[in-house]
Amino acid sequence: MFNAVLLLRLAKHGVDIVTVGFFAWVALLPTFKFAWAPLLDKYDVPGFGRFWGKRRGWIMLAQLGIFLSTVAMAFTSSDANLPVTALFAVLLAFWTTTLEVAADAWRIELAPTAEQQGPMVAANLWGYRSAMVAAGSGAIYIAAKSDWTTAYLVIAAAAFLPFPILALTRSDAEHGGGRGAALVTGTIASLVVLAVTGVATAVVGWLLLKALGSVGLDNPDIVKYWVFAVALLPFFALGAAVPWIRNLPSDHRLLTTSVLAPYINVAWRFGLVIIPILLFVSVYRMGDVMALTLSHPLFNALGYSLEAIAFSDGAVALLSSMLGVALGGWLAAKAPMGWALAIGAVMSALSNWIFAWLAHQAPGGPVWFHIGSMAVTAGDFDLYLSMAIDQFGHGFEGAVFVVYLSLLVNPRFPGAQYALLSGLAFLIPRLLAGLSGVFQKAIGYDGFFIMAGAMSIAAVIFLPFIVRAMPRRDDA
């Protein structure tokens, strides 16, 4: 949702739609969270971990990172320097992702079975989507009444609120020490980590921009070929390695003590069927990601006010997504997983196709009814209806998908393996999302959303190959 707000902000500032699409690549960072997820499984955060334990300690560090990154986004809200905007957007994505890794590992440890995961996922996504929807719609509404700087500062303050609440929770049963000392030590250590991360990100970003410019990747036509090559590379590499990995003995060092053990274990457990599994998960969330990328630029292009967009992102999106999450979580716990996944794919497709219809509507028209002091016109109702269908469908699909991914994870490596699977699940969608502006210029908004919905429903092709996939019996 924060990425959607950023893309709307850029569109409002007149940034070209192709460049707006490129900013969707900020969301690629969570795709590679498996690169640092093992650190969250292996190490405690100094100070915080000593008192609150591994999972809560990392969550507290991530919350500080989210707070400071959002403040930085507030003071660069003019978007006068797009590389600086991108820097703080990447840092915000990094710490948000770190928070998700820690929370996902905690959830999987607490609820390892499908019956437990259904309600747990629904509750988790209710909280997550409620916070994201409230923050996103709140930022847009405040920007409409004031400016983007104020909006981001208010959201930063709200994002900080869980930190003192966690600080007041009881200590972890396996840890001791004083609360005050742990809080001071953890805060100092966290500020050091945040500073180092910020400097490292700036340096890497500068080098990356230099490298991209030197090979001509500022040309969208060239970018398309690189994007497809990067998207397919992991699957070619995995296809070549799986036969060798499959024959490793269960006590091999690569499966037990090496840094790569959590990732090699995934291919070792499932063998060659891991390839259709990963292809399935890579396509399944396509519609969700593509809709998030250009939905708000579409609203802006059609001429909807920030107030109308804020209401659609707020009450409309929150209620419909919560209903979708609840039904999706219930279905994933009660129905055969194959049927639940198939229904979710159809929901995702419909969620995109409704925006193809909206692209031919317009704001304004006669007033249909009032919500408090706000008059809802026929055009506004079109927007709210579209957002309701979109959020219900993607909430439903997302809940089913999270349960499915959680059941693929080996309980010995909950954080790292879930990070790997959920990261690869979004690799192709997020790479293609960066080209959304290129697609939109070629086929228009309606063609773009029709294409995105068709991509989502295509995932059902893989269901016959994956629904009966089971891990090998000799997995320790």
Could you please describe the fold and organization of this structure?
The chain is mostly helical. It has one domain: Growth Hormone, Chain: A, CATH 1.20.1250. The protein is built from 21 helices and 2 strands. Helix 16 runs antiparallel to helix 17. The longest helix has 36 residues.
* Number of E-type strands: 2
Number of domains: 1
CATH topology: Growth Hormone, Chain: A
Largest sheet: 2 strands, antiparallel
Mean pLDDT: 82
Give the overall shape.
globular
What's the CATH C level?
Answer: Mainly Alpha
Uncertain runs: none
Oligomeric form: single chain
**What letter string, H or E per element, gives the SSE order?**
HHHHHHHHHHHHHHHHEEHHHHH
Strand order of the largest sheet: 1-2
Number of helix segments? 21
- Structural class, please? mainly alpha
Summarize the structure.
With 476 residues, this protein is an all-alpha fold. Helices cover 76% and strands 2% of the residues.
Ordered list of secondary-structure elements with their pairings:
Blueprint: H1 2-12, H2 17-23, H3 37-42, H4 48-74, H5 82-110, H6 114-145, H7 148-160, H8 162-167, H9 179-214, H10 220-246, H11 253-256, H12 261-270, H13 274-284, H14 286-302, H15 306-334, H16 337-358, E1 367-371, E2 374-377, H17 378-408, H18 414-425, H19 427-433, H20 436-457, H21 463-466
Antiparallel strand pairs: 1-2
